[in-house]
Automatic annotation (TrEMBL):
One of its GO terms (molecular function) is L-malate dehydrogenase (NAD+) activity. Substrate binds at residues 92, 98, 131, 162. Its EC number is 1.1.1.37. The active site is at residue 187. This is Malate dehydrogenase. It is an enzyme of class 1 (oxidoreductase). The keyword Metal-binding does not apply. Residues 156-324 form the Lactate/malate dehydrogenase C-terminal domain. It catalyses: (S)-malate + NAD(+) = oxaloacetate + NADH + H(+).
């Protein structure tokens, strides 16, 4: 039997946490034969609710779940973890300045970075979900210098999956037959959902999605804005932000990272930029990646037309600004 993997979920008493922990315990993140020990962190005001989640995990009698640590102590939460999914953060409240929200999250991610660096298992893989996800991940990277930068990522897989969903609805095809969309840049409304390289499996072979849609106005307009604004549309409809889709996408992100992407398929991940596609190095930016042996690699050599170029640069500019704002909160 396999040794259990320790998975940390921060913000575990929140709504994404509540959707995510049962998925982890059921093997959706790491596979149906991989036992897990869940580490759940939240802050003291949520301690009782967190304990309630722990009670429900016990009640669900998940065969793969070999233990649960539910705590408000960051060191206890981080000790020995192999995977860390960072969902906890300070939400933007009405009337709050961008700088104030950033400052709260910078201090959270700075201290959690140190705890992970000192207490997590060697080679721990980190996924930041909490917003501003890319910049929180960058702060975490800066303050956990002994964790390899390749191990620190942020979630844009939800946006990627939303793009697949929109194409499948538009073409009336199975979502599993659509692949290789790309989310470039920030997990924000400046992200660029790109279909230029996406394909669809048809009875007569794989076809470019763009050709099948045959409507550039939709591809360059409504499609992009629908994916960019999907989070807001969910809030409007549910009066709550995306939770089950965020949790499911977080599982997809980690599963593909650890177990590998299928041959010929790439996914989108927010990763530390090495300057590929002329994106400034030193940002956490969403790129198309393939994964093998637990490591991601940016897909190289894709053609970028003038329309796409502008969009890649715009979202990079926003991330450069966010980085400067985050650094200004440190001093
Ligand atoms: P909730 O407010 O329901 O839950 C957040 C939880 O984090 C709360 O239980 C809170 O007590 C806890 N928390 C706050 N500070 C903490 C700290 N220092 N340490 C540990 N826990 C702490 O929010 P939820 O809807 O679950 O969303 C969580 C985060 O995900 C938000 O930042 C949200 O903006 C972000 N999202 C990111 C997405 C992405 O694709 N990257 C999509 C979904 C989501 O909007």
């Amino acid at each position: 039997a396999k040794e259990p993997v320790r998975v940390l979920v921060t913000g575990a008493a929140g709504q994404i946490g509540y959707a995510l922990v049962p998925m982890v315990a059921r093997g959706i993140m790491l596979g149906p034969d991989q036992p897990v020990i869940l580490h759940m962190l939240d802050i003291p005001p949520a301690a009782e609710a967190l304990n309630g989640v722990k009670m429900e995990l016990v009640d669900a009698a998940f065969p793969l779940l070999k233990g649960v640590v539910a705590t408000t102590d960051v060191v206890e939460a981080c000790t020995g973890v192999n995977i860390a999914v960072m969902v906890g953060g300070f939400p933007r409240k009405e009337g709050m300045e961008r700088k104030d929200v950033m400052s709260k999250n910078v201090s959270i991610y700075k201290s959690q970075a140190s705890a992970l660096e000192k207490h997590a298992a060697a080679n721990c893989k980190v996924l930041v979900v909490a917003n501003p996800a890319n910049t929180n991940a960058l702060i975490l990277k800066e303050f956990a210098p002994s964790i390899p930068e390749k191990n620190i990522t942020c979630l844009t897989r939800l946006d990627h999956n939303r793009a697949l969903g929109q194409i499948s609805e538009r073409l009336n095809v199975q979502v599993s037959d659509v692949k290789n969309v790309i989310i470039w840049g920030n997990h924000s409304s400046t992200q660029y959902p790109d279909v230029c390289h996406a394909t669809v499996k048809t009875p007569s072979g794989e076809k470019p999605a763009r050709e099948l849609v045959a409507n550039d106005e939709w591809v360059n307009g409504e499609f992009i804005s629908t994916v960019q604004q999907r989070g807001a549309a969910i809030i409007k409809a549910r009066k709550l932000s995306s939770a089950l889709s965020a949790a499911s996408s977080a599982c997809d992100h980690i599963r593909d990272w650890v177990l590998g992407t299928p041959e010929g398929t790439w996914v989108s991940m927010g990763v530390y930029s090495d300057g590929s596609y002329n994106v400034p190095a030193g940002l956490i930016y969403s790129f198309p990646v393939t994964c093998r042996n637990g490591e991601w690699t940016i897909v190289q050599g894709l053609s970028i037309d003038a329309f796409s170029r502008k969009k890649l640069d715009l979202t990079a500019e926003e991330l450069t600004d966010e980085k400067a704002l985050a650094y200004s909160c440190l001093s």
